[in-house]
Design a protein that fits this description.
The chain is mostly helical and 257 residues long. It is built from 9 helices and 10 strands. The chain has a two-stranded antiparallel sheet. A two-stranded antiparallel ribbon has the order 3-6.
Length: 257
Amino acid sequence: LPVRVIGALLGVPEQDSDRFVTWVRQILEFAHDVDGRQKAIGELNDYMRGQIADRRLNPGDDILSHLVTVEVEGELVPEDVILGEAALLLVAGVDTTWSAIGSSLYHLASHPEDRRRLVAEPELLDVFIEEVLRFYSPVTMGRTAATDTEFGGCPIAEGDRVLMNFPAANRDPEVFENPDTVDLDREKNRHIAFGIGSHRCAGSNLARLEMETALRVWFERIPEFECANPAAVEWAGGQVRGPRHLPFTFPAKKVRG
């Protein structure tokens, strides 16, 4: 679902989805493979250059077409900026959202009481989505220190790279009551799963819409399901965290749609 949504926004062919999946995973999940990551970035940029060249000749109703035709202060947007925007949309808009959807299904498959309550009380879906974002926090971001400073007794020099641990912040007991529990009745949930301040994720509302759509349709068709083998669940590491192998079982007679 996230791949198709971002692909539609960019106006690229749907049949290229598998290529996007490979590039996104190589860039984010297998970042320790430096050569593979650079290769994926190069292939992605080459692909997008071809798409940009096509939009200059055949503009359509998509984001790439807008970026190649819009002017900023009387100047067309440079191609390297367009490439950066396209890569950001694809990489940031795909892996994070499918990780959040996967974490939602993982939780529901292993917590039948929450799953059955959501089926019976669909109005709680928005609350559940925010709790999943807080509890499973799919993203950890890095920043570059702008000035010399100190935090918690640790000196940080200008130019140092700092890892912003959003998942830890979202389990802060000084902010959240019972932080290590998914609570479908949680009223105060000012999580920072999408970041905070000027760098807050621009696609946060799109991600929420995709999660809501995916879970609503899933419940309509498969209200009862469970994890077939918890030991077989595999999680992605690196900058984005979410389940990548999640075997389910469900009673066929209860599948609808």
